[in-house]
Amino acid sequence: MTTWYRLYRQTLNSTQCSLFSPITINNWTFGLDSVKLAPMKIDVTHTGKILVLHGPNLNLLGTREPETYGRTTLAEINDNLTDLAHNDGIKLTHFQSNGESELIERIQRAIGENVQFIIINPAAYTHTSIALRDALAATGIPFIEVHLSNIFARESFRQKSYFSDLARGVICGLGAKGYELALEYALAALSGGSSQNSENTGVTAK
Ligand SMILES: O=C1C[C@@](O)(C(=O)O)C[C@@H](O)[C@@H]1O
């Protein structure tokens, strides 16, 4: 999909405004100036919004049980996702909390912010929180459930999720890569490129 950006060029006595098709290389956008071809770094026009939510103890990623959750820190995960989304002109915000009520309030705010997709690792709340599940259901915003570890290969109490039946999809056991894959799907869905049709994907969309 070609995204068009509005470029403003300050002149001596006026601000000229034209539409140009940009080329983006390494987060720099090059546009055609109305007089000459000149590189201009501009703010990318964000055409969509994705919210990434992390539940309790995920702030400790990197040092927390690395044999189970890997050595990638939460900051590294968030930075990577932010860059990937930004390259597609999508604004990505992330939020981590150890508290159920804070996560619920963050989800409720997403409605007013026009968030179009949520990626969530509810962490231990996966197995306990009807309240978080209800908050996601109340927004009606499609979401993907992500777990770093393969919860189905772990203790039996981790094999129950209060989210999976509402989720567009579930990714678990692939470590930090799982977030990237979830984002890839969300970006495709926002650009209309991801089929929501079970006939085409083999996946039943909610
Ligand atoms: O905190 C977590 C992390 C987790 O969601 C995961 O990403 O693998 C799995 C949960 O069972 C656990 O409580």
TrEMBL record:
This is 3-dehydroquinate dehydratase. GO terms for molecular function: 3-dehydroquinate dehydratase activity. Keywords: Amino-acid biosynthesis, Aromatic amino acid biosynthesis, Lyase. It comes from the Bacteria. Belongs to the type-II 3-dehydroquinase family. It catalyses: 3-dehydroquinate = 3-dehydroshikimate + H2O. PANTHER family: CATABOLIC 3-DEHYDROQUINASE (PTHR21272).
